[in-house]
């Protein structure tokens, strides 16, 4: 285990303890301030004066959000991503090179501030809708439970909230606001929810510690590695991606736990919360809040007559990783949606759906994702491999899965699952090697196998594509 991994583990465990201790605080302002103070102290204790980068980012973004609420999403996006690029190149400007933890904080702040700017812009637009005619009750409830109007101090405290500040999950300002103000949150007992989430942590930790002892990405950059046989080089990406997965599973599970301990992301299950998004059934949320009279919330559903004072709660809003789905869903597309799910929501909601040209949505979303992760060429090589991978997968699906029997679909799913895992392993090497020459050298040593498979799948999928039926005149 590297020193950075130990540092992250310590920070995350401490965040869990902070969340648990702060949850009983009833005063929203005190809770808000305490969470932010702890966040600022932890950041400063690790990065020192580099915390000034994040303070400058928050200060300018806050001003932009207040100056023009209608267009602040555009100006804040440009500012935050522009400063993110500068922050990663500080050593070229005679400043101290950004520390890994400082970079992680800057990443999360970028998501938070850009996301908040879109929430504010959407709120401004929605208020114009309310003044019009013909708006139905469902739209009114959606506007009611998604609108935000934070002060400058609120923006600062939200930005430095210790929950998720180092590794995520991303959560909207409205989710943060609801943690502070929804009346039932104080009754939620987080330990039983957290227990279900962390029970697999020892399994992840054992696999990680074993693999970390025998496999390192640095070895894949040595001459000795390239003197090994083709089969060894090909298989080396399997334990490397498994090591990466276990590391991320551990980090995200702990960060989710810190949120649950504080009550962040706790919503009634019948409001159908989604990762990052929060509730999607606003009529159910409105009903739950109107009839809420309970003194204690337990993990039990209401009676059929709705008179029970107990409420079924879930924390899907801060659910960032679905390990089972990542491992066993058959396709790359669904597997991606199960990985870092709150960031996937951010990319879909604040980037993909906002791109006016549909044909460019996937490409631009992958480009933003790569830029957000870093300026290392390995990120771009990996992310830009995703669109053709998805296209090849879709073509194969159209040719061999649709309109087939259940047995044939299951056989196909196992086949395409094998392809999915190899695709992720191949692209993960770009994430790990980072440099252009290292990534290309590794891919070249295995003959760019995944790129070859993409072309083969496209050719097969095109040849066996469903034939269009023409009506005889």
Helix and strand arrangement:
Layout: H1 3-22, H2 28-47, H3 51-67, H4 72-87, H5 100-130, H6 137-146, H7 152-159, H8 173-181, H9 190-198, H10 201-214, H11 223-226, H12 230-262, E1 267-268, H13 282-291, E2 313-314, H14 323-328, H15 332-337, H16 341-350, H17 361-373, H18 377-383, H19 386-400, H20 406-433, H21 436-445, H22 449-463
Helix pairs in contact: 1-2, 1-12, 2-7, 3-4, 3-5, 3-7, 4-5, 9-12, 10-12, 12-20, 17-18, 18-20, 19-20, 19-22, 20-21
List its salient traits.
473 residues; mainly alpha; 2 strands; globular
Order of helices and strands: HHHHHHHHHHHHEHEHHHHHHHHH
Shape: globular
**Order of strands in the sheet with most strands:** 1-2
Low-pLDDT regions: 294-308
Averaged pLDDT, please?
A: 91
Beta-strand share of residues? under 5%
Q: Span between N and C termini?
A: 71 Å
CA radius of gyration is 24 Å
Summarize the main sheet: 2 strands, antiparallel
Number of strands: 2
Instruction: Specify the structural class.
Output: mainly alpha
**What is the helical fraction, as a range of percent?**
55-70%
Count, helices: 22
């Amino acid at each position: 285990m590297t020193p950075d991994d130990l540092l992250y583990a310590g920070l995350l465990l401490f965040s869990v303890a902070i969340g648990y201790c702060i949850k009983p605080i009833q005063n929203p302002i005190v809770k808000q301030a305490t969470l932010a103070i702890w966040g600022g102290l932890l950041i400063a204790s690790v990065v020192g004066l580099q915390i000034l980068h994040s303070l400058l980012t928050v200060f300018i973004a806050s001003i932009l959000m207040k100056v023009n609420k209608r267009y602040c999403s555009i100006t804040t996006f440009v500012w935050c991503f522009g400063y993110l690029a500068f922050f990663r190149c500080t050593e070229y400007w005679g400043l101290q090179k950004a520390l890994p933890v400082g970079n992680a904080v800057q990443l999360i702040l970028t998501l938070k501030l850009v996301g908040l700017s879109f929430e504010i812009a959407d709120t401004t637009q929605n208020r114009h809708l309310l003044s019009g005619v013909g708006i139905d009750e469902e739209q009114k409830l959606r506007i009611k439970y998604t609108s935000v109007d934070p002060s400058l101090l609120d923006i600062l405290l939200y930005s430095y909230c210790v929950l998720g500040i180092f590794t995520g999950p991303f959560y909207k300002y409205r989710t943060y606001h609801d943690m502070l103000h929804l009346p039932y949150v104080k009754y939620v007992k987080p330990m039983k929810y957290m227990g279900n989430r962390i029970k697999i942590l020892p399994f992840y930790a054992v696999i990680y510690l074993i693999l970390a002892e025998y496999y390192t990405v640095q070895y894949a950059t040595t001459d000795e590695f390239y003197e090994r046989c083709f089969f060894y080089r090909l298989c080396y990406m399997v334990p490397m991606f498994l090591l990466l997965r276990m590391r991320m599973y551990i980090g995200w599970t702990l960060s989710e736990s810190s949120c649950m301990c504080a009550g962040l992301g706790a919503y009634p299950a019948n409001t159908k919360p989604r990762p990052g998004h929060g509730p999607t059934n606003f009529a159910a949320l409105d009903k739950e809040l109107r009839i809420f009279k309970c003194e204690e919330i337990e993990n039990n559903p209401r009676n059929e007559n709705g008179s029970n004072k107990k409420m079924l709660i879930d924390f899907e809003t801060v659910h960032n990783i679905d390990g089972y789905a990542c491992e066993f869903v058959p396709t790359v597309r669904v597997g991606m949606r199960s990985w870092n799910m709150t960031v996937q929501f951010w990319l879909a909601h604040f980037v993909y759906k906002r791109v006016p040209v549909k044909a460019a949505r996937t490409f631009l979303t992958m480009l933003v994702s790569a830029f957000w992760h870093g300026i290392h060429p390995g990120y771009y090589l990996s992310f830009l491999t995703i669109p053709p991978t998805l296209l090849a997968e879709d073509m194969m699906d159209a040719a061999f899965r649709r309109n087939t029997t259940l047995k044939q679909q299951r056989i196909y799913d196992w086949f395409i699952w094998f392809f999915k895992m190899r695709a992720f392993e191949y692209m993960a090497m770009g994430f790990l090697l980072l440099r252009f020459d290292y990534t290309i050298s590794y891919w070249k040593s295995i003959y760019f196998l995944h790129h070859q498979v993409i072309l083969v799948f496209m050719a097969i999928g095109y040849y066996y594509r469903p034939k269009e039926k023409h009506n005889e005149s």
